[in-house]
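Structure first, sequence second, as always.
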């Protein structure tokens, strides 16, 4: 009988594992496109990056590793698209699988952040800024990644305030 290896993966929602300083990279995962955002080293200002194409795992991992290296990122946050009733969706199961894979492949902590309405909110933000049509479609995924990262950082600040 073959023995299976048991992995003690971290709790992807334990924000206390995130360093207090340093850039954090955020991804809004789609089936074909991935929105990308990061924050500054003080974890205050969030900015979008060009979206990535969702490709084979190894190539996708290489692209994310390049971002992490270029930004000197200290953590990775993936959007977790749960259903409105808190149950898993097909995409949230995919996000959990990717979080596990990234944890096994990267030397930085990986987190999952609830992102149920970020794409809708991102679309509204871009509309309010007067960005429409093709430009809106090109930017919506990374704008959603910004919102995911803002939510993550706000939650992290709230938890820190409750402790102190």
């Amino acid at each position: 009988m073959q023995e299976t290896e048991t992995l003690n993966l971290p709790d992807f929602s334990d924000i206390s594992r995130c360093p207090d300083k340093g850039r954090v990279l955020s991804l809004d995962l789609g089936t074909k496109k991935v929105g990308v955002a990061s924050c500054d080293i003080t974890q205050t200002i969030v900015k979008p990056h060009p979206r990535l194409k969702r490709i084979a795992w190894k190539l996708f991992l290489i692209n994310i590793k390049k971002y992490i290296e270029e930004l000197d990122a200290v953590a990775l946050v993936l959007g977790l698209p749960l259903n409105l009733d808190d149950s898993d969706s097909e995409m949230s199961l995919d996000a959990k699988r990717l979080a596990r894979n990234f944890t096994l492949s990267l030397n930085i902590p990986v987190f999952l952040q609830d992102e149920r309405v970020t794409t809708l909110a991102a679309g509204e933000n871009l509309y309010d800024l007067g960005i429409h049509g093709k430009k809106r479609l090109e930017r919506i995924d990374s704008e959603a990644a910004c919102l995911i990262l803002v939510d993550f950082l706000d939650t992290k600040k709230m938890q820190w305030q409750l402790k102190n």
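Margin note: Helices lie at 57-71, 90-105, 118-128, 133-163.
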